[in-house]
Amino acid sequence: MNGLNAAVLATIPSPDRGVWYLGPLPIRAYALCIIAGIIVAIWWGERRWVERGGIKGEVTDIAVWAVPFGLVGGRLYHVITDNQKYFGPGKNPLAALEIWNGGLGIWGAIALGAVGAWIGCRRKGIPLPAMADALAPGIVVAQAIGRLGNYFNQELYGGDTTLPWGLEIYRRVTPEGREDALAGVAIDHTPIQVVHPTFLYELLWNLGVALLIVWADRKFRLGHGRVFALYVAGYTAGRFWIELMRTDEATLVFGQRVNVFVSALVFFGAIAYFVVARSRGGREDVAAVRTAHPTDGEPVEPGETPSREAEAVEEDAEKDKKNSSESVKPE
Length: 331
Fold this sequence. Notes:
Elements: H1 2-8, E1 19-22, E2 25-28, H2 29-51, H3 58-81, H4 106-124, H5 128-152, E3 167-169, E4 172-173, E5 185-186, E6 193-195, H6 198-220, H7 226-245, E7 252-253, E8 256-257, H8 258-276, H9 286-289, H10 308-327
Antiparallel strand pairs: 1-2, 3-6, 4-5, 7-8
């Protein structure tokens, strides 16, 4: 115990709770962090999309499809890979729906979120790889913000440590006296454990990945999905070693956490795509590769039905031409 008390002198305290109440309404830190991350990703993605030749507001239109798909995909992946938390003797299967208590698998979120983004891009006539490149830095920063939710939930940490940045874990209890790390409140600030803050390691790694891909994008004018591939490769490289440090319950494959293998597989897939896509050249001209779309939102091939923007430009040009010819008509 003396060693524990000495370590506490230079450690990171945890919040005493992760949920506050406004009357009967629970305000959950995890949910707020997820929402804040989504807002940042959309805002930054919008700016980058316009800089690359896109139209303002299109990222928000795509997010209407991508965000719900991503949330569902993230939850599905978590429930599938951590099914022992929800199914079996003494478990409550309905808890699998309680997304507000944490549990979003990034692999499922990206995979199904990409499906939603593809649907949105197809309806708008936007090339998905170009949109993915614009969104990539914002997505990884959103993941960093989301990790703060794990901090409030006292979850996703590693083994015991005496390092000065060790994280204090408190015993939390509900008003009924039941221990609950998510919904409870710390009865005092005496830590029951001091651990590696692996959520913090991942947060800092993600911010570093964001800086890397922004730098690489500006220097090499990456396109055709290569910025997104670099983000995936950078993120999975960090997730691999961070996953090895975590001690929370997880599904094991060959004695290792399943996400260790997933990280490695996705990393090599991202690197392969990054190399292969190099043959497509530098950054694409978004305006040039955009397919036109009629008023119902369904895309068509270039040269068929022009987009509303193109029709408006053509109409204005015809009016200007008509007015010009009338102004020079002899009396």
